[in-house]
Write a structure and sequence with these properties.
Elements: H1 2-11, H2 15-18, H3 23-35, H4 50-102, H5 109-136, H6 147-159, H7 164-179, H8 184-206, H9 208-214, H10 217-246, H11 249-258, H12 263-275, H13 278-288
Helix pairs in contact: 1-3, 4-5, 6-10, 7-8, 8-9, 8-13
């Protein structure tokens, strides 16, 4: 692995230094290294697999988008109908019940019980039916919210921890390690690979507190000491992000960008810049060395 690390480090140097090692020679060295290994790690595929992987990702993304559109259409169709039935029933109960009260008609115990039961049924529909619809379309779990709050939390999450903040923090740590002389493979491993292949799965299964309790003493102490500093450092950024979401600025940006005539070209340029950055080219090489790809 030491020889492979040196080969990768040579490739990922700055452009002027890299020119001293022709790509054909680099490929030859990688092939030489791979052929000498019993497991024959297919290193050379690291730089040619990206297009096929991108096609797989695009296909999965299109499939997921189609499912989301189907769910959204179904929910959009059924939700108004459910609420119409519930509201009409509630209005009828209150109307006839109110007429009886205002008209001086006396309630019998049976009528009073029936009236209260009907009101209870109508109001329960407002809560039960949406939950039933959610379960029917395959939701893992449900929680009460409103359309407005869902929009705010969804847009904040996507721009924050789920994608934007995650990618930004990864790039920051990777660049810091590279700036202090760590190789691309080492910087990527300590920034992305260990997180995605090990730690995040344990957090998913057991929670972050379990992760802290079961890691090494050095990792635990360091994580506890720095957790608060990272939290406090990004709070102003998240506050600014949430304000931008609530004000409608984020929605305006999305609508404006997606309606531009050159939207696809600009998007491709942004994604290509990320894909061809040193960090994610190192990631392609590291992923190719996983045992599942031998």
């Amino acid at each position: 692995m030491e020889k492979l690390s040196k080969i990768m480090e040579t490739y990922f140097r700055e452009e002027p230094a890299r020119e001293t090692l022709p790509k054909s020679e680099l490929v030859q060295q990688i092939e030489e290294f791979a052929n000498n290994k019993e497991k024959r790690a297919e290193v050379i595929k690291a730089f040619t697999r990206e297009k096929s992987e991108q096609k797989k990702f695009n296909a999965s993304a299109d499939s997921l988008m189609a499912q989301q559109i189907t769910v959204a259409r179904t929910f959009s169709f059924l939700f108004p109908i459910v609420f119409l039935i519930a509201n009409v029933g509630q209005a009828l109960v209150l109307y006839f019940g109110g007429r009886m009260v205002l008209g001086g008609d006396a309630f019998t115990i049976g009528q009073l019980v029936t009236f209260v039961a009907l009101v209870g049924i109508i109001f329960s529909l407002l809560f039960i039916v949406p939950f039933a619809l959610g379960i029917a379309i395959g939701s893992g779990y449900l929680f009460p919210t409103t359309f407005q709050r869902e929009v705010y939390s969804d847009l904040t999450g996507e721009r924050g921890v789920l994608m934007g903040a995650l990618a930004g923090i990864m790039e920051a740590q990777y660049n810091t390690l590279r700036g202090h002389g760590h190789s691309p493979s080492e910087a990527f491993n300590e920034t992305v690979e260990e997180l995605t292949q090990s730690l995040i799965r344990l957090v998913d299964q057991n929670g972050m507190d379990w992760m802290y309790e079961n890691c090494s003493a050095t990792a635990r102490r360091g994580a506890l000491d720095w957790r608060g500093r990272f939290r406090d450092a990004v709070v102003p950024v998240f506050d600014a992000l949430y304000d931008s979401v609530v004000s409608g600025e984020e929605t305006r940006i999305v609508l404006e960008a997606n309606s531009a005539a050159d939207y696809k070209e600009k998007l491709d340029a942004e994604l290509t810049e990320m894909r061809e950055s040193e960090m994610w080219r190192a990631g392609a090489a590291v992923r190719s060395l996983r045992p599942t790809n031998w």
